[in-house]
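Study both lines:
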Amino acid sequence: ATLRSLGLGFVALFAVGYFNGSIRANYLSVFTTFTFDAGVLGLYLGFLIGYPRQVQQAISGTAATWVLTLMLWPTVLAFVPINDFLVQLVALRATIWFVPALLIATQLRTADLNLLVRGLAVLNLMALGGGMYVYFYGLEALYPRNAVTELMYRSNDVAGYQYHRIPSFFLNAHAYGGTMLFTLPLLVERCLGRGVPLGDRIVASAGIAAALVGILLCAARQPVVQLVLALMVAWLFTRLNLTVGLVVCLLLTIGALLASSNERFQRFRTLEDTTYVTQRVRASANASFFELMVRYPMGAGLGSSAGTSIPFFLADRAPEQIGLENEYSRILVDQGLIGLGLWIGFVGWLILRPPPLRLQWSWGLGIMLMYAWVTVNWATAFIGAGTLSSIPQSILLLVQMGVLCRVRQLYSHSNM
């Protein structure tokens, strides 16, 4: 698929990612554990074989230097004999395997993005179908209870602990809601952007509706919070632009109407309990983080951090989990202060210089929304883990970071 076009390659990869969870849950094996990784390998091979000129462009520039550095440091750590070597290799894969997708995304053109949106809209509708199936027939109808699905069955805290969170075809509810969240900047652009054919607007609108329902249906709170914050950031970033303001009001109104229609869509309302929210924030971001910095300045070894997904077949070799439910804590424990500093440096380099408000590009609205989504994602990464290892949400995040890197590069050249 990648040899046909980069847009089609990403669509094929996301198709694998959307159904990865149900495949892994129903067919437990070493091979199915790495289904999505194999899809990523296909994308990389297709890009290397079919696009030699774009490969040269992708590996040149500041973004490529950052990516190489972010991958090189944990690779060195993987060969320091602290934890079981296989555990460290699996943790290395979760740390660096998806990151080169960012460089490929810098080579996406408007036609590729348009094709990607069509694919994501269809996949969102299919995911909604899977979510509604689980909603009506229960987790047992789609997921057997085993080592892979144990977390799903423990997440029965919806509507007064009467129901489970809904994962659709994904491995957990957060992966479902997070993926739906990160499709929205792309879909909104094709729904409301300039010069978009009517057919594409209709398809994108259907994808947006499926994404909003999915964010509420999954019953995970973090995607709801991130959606509201990202919409506010986008509006402020555009200096209260009327068009963006209407988008914000429209999406929030639709979400509010959907939430009010069903008690199972309202788990996010537990955030009204300020005592609970304070406790949750303290559990993820507190003084213990600084204690970890002092105790593990060079990290505790790859695979040691809380939030690292160790496959069931390596569970007996996994070290004691250290840290907090915090993506920055996960990076710190695995990679030490150097790895944490590299990631903070790269994210700061990307978001501290926003894209220009008046882009000479048909995807101007989408770029602004991507910037808001990426900014909010990293600003809230201290609550919850999985930013860089969620399937396929992490690839969607990296694609949008890659597009922003491309915009930054083009804008810098135009000012020279």
Q: What stands out?
A: The two ends are 37 Å apart (CA to CA). The chain has 18 helices and no strands.
